[in-house]
Amino acid sequence: MGAQEAVVTITIYHNPKCGTSRNVLAMIRNSGEEPQVIEYLKTPPSRAELVELIARARITPRQVLRRKGTPYDDLALDDPSLTDDQLIDAMMEHPILINRPLVVTPLGVRLCRPSEVVLDILPNPQRGPFVKEDGEVVIDAQGRRVG
Question: Potential cystine with 86: which of 44, 82, 101, 131 (Cβ 3.0-4.6 Å)?
Fold first, then answer.
């Protein structure tokens, strides 16, 4: 019986309209993995899932809030007196407030901004060169990280 490759489970909380999210998804695929893609605007995480993702990423709810293109300002979410629970309540009510992409791999959970952060938690190396949508080279022809 031959050796079997271990099954790697990677999940990306993805917004296909976001260039950073698309770049991260492409880097996951460039490592030879096909992740579970959760379009979190269509299928938001439960409150418990969101709390766990934030804790495992070792960030605060405030650090996962997205301001641009969201009701952040209308909801006055920059108010420092708001508790973590209140910020999570806002994200549950308006999933667009959850910054993306959040990626889960066997090596950890990260908010992948900038997109290269995903390279720190991918179990397998990049299988070829990778260039972001904007033309920035991330992985060279020898599979080495640039920059």
Answer: 82
112 is catalytic: no
Q: In what order do the strands lie in the sheet with 36-39?
A: 36-39, 11-14, 102-105, 108-111
Map out the domains of the chain as residue ranges.
11-139
Residues 117, 118, 123: CA angle, nearest 5 degrees = 130
Calpha distance 44→28 (Å, rounded)? 21
**11 close to 39: Cβ distance less than 8 angstroms:** no
Predicted model pTM: 0.91
Q: Which of 10, 12, 18, 103 is catalytic?
A: 18
| 11-139: CATH class | alpha beta
